[in-house]
Amino acid sequence: MPVHNPDIAQSLESIADLLELEGANPFRIRAYRNAARVVQGLGTEISVLLQRGKDLSELPGIGKDLAGKISDLARTGHLPLLDRLRKSTPAIAVELLKLPGLGPKRVQAICHDLDVHNLEQLHRAILDGRLRELRGFGPAAESRLLQALQTRRGVPQRLKLALAESYVTPLIAYLKAAPGVDTAITAGSYRRCQETVGDIDILVTAKSGPPAVKHFTRYEEVGKVTAAGDTRATVVLRSGLQVDLRVVPPRDYGSALQYFTGSKAHSIAIRRLGQKRGLKINEYGVFRGKKRIGGTTEAEVYRAVGLPYIEPELRENRGEIEAAAAGKLPKLVKLEDLRGDLHVHSVATDGHDTIRQLATVGRARGYEYLAITDHSRRLTVAHGLDPKRLLKEIEEIDRINAGKPGIALLKGIEVDILPDGKLDLPDDVLGHLDLVVASVHGQFNLSREKQTERILRAMERPHFTILSHPTGRLIGEREPYDVDMPRIIRAARDRGCFLELNAHPDRLDLTDIHCRMAKEAGVLISIASDTHRAPELANLRFGVGQARRGWIEKNDVLNARGLAELAPLLRRTMR
DNA sequence: GCCGTTTTCGGCCCGACTGTTTTCAGTCG
Question: Please, are residues A548 and A333 in contact by the beta-carbon 8 Å criterion?
Fold first, then answer.
């Protein structure tokens, strides 16, 4: 049973959690968390690196010890250290660590002094008044824990980026309108375009902190104020979303934004670089001794440590700092680089709008082309097209194109990949099209081997152009099906076909890491909206954010090409 | 546990806020 990078990263994270509970050296704990992040972000499986004889200790933050542990994990899936830690620490402790306000010290006290082995026992201990007798616990801790236990058992839901956006946009407008406020901007994982966010970080610049904090805590959607000081505050909106606010003077905008954007690992790495140059970097600026030498813009912060500006989506300490130092930062793709959309549904199947309506909206967005890709017959719930109806749709598109609609409509299909790897429509029918987008829409639970074979076989069909939503995941709702993505990516390279980054905010499939793997393999990506209603064409922005996290440049994107360049690329797949 | 034009030992990012204290530990980001 092969051990994959996410499994290895998970084991390293577990070790960090358990070491934390043991009260181990915090820097040792950080080393394990770092290693987990590095492994997670690798474009290549550890097992493959080992086969190639790669020395893992060359990876950043991985020394001799961790290299040995990681290779043990990759080979066996087990590690004596992890087994020992699991044996000596009750499982409940790990769960308690996730509750708000509980760190390792308090968890130890609860487990040890109160003899608590499950959440039920903790609940009883609170009700009996035994918790508040512990040193370090008072009425506030008691009620906070009680609430966490009663509501969602302490596991906070992460919010999809699109939903977060709907809360953030009006809040930012509200803050900007406040008296004395200079500007307001969202930082944190939201600014880095992570596919989901745990909370929202907002930076406000204002001459004085307290009035801005006050204004913030009085926002009408605030359900609860968790903390409020002179320069920062934390609230929970009625929706349950936590929002952190920080206020700094306008002069400190750059250093504050750089710091609050994170990621934590990136910030630490930047501050260490500063340290080596005899600088101190905090949210208030860059300092040499007592002298402030910069921090009004983010670029100043990076310049102080000898680096060019690094885009927020790259700030994960996954090699961007080394790339910046070497002058090899990618020039990330932008929304305005996209020349069209290659995955759109019309009213003929489960879409809401006619082809003419879609063309009008596409043209208004400045697109050069739009591919109509309705479903195939297998997807009966979507009223999928059989050959006869598809040929009718082709005729309709030809008719509209003949009328010079100001945008080129491409004739496509989203064809089902059947469980045996055949496509849902015969080759001679698919041959009439400009492109064939192919998807898995059922039989998600095949074994990794069978699912991979199924897709590889489909890719071998003569007219296969783009593999749509390659892992089938729905964020927070459905796990990706088990599929060997490195193999799929290699096959796409060999076959000369393309992978889709489905930009629907529920999917965002490819992930950032898969994007990076595809880029390294030289496989072009189609950033596509999978639109079912015309306004969803705007969802491309989420796909672009994800692509940027995956280091994707304009040249790596199929639909960043104009029609003249795109057409031969599509024809190449129609063999 | 990692790392090194100060170092193979002794550092390791840095600050704000809360709650429980009676001057600060713990937690969080």
Answer: yes
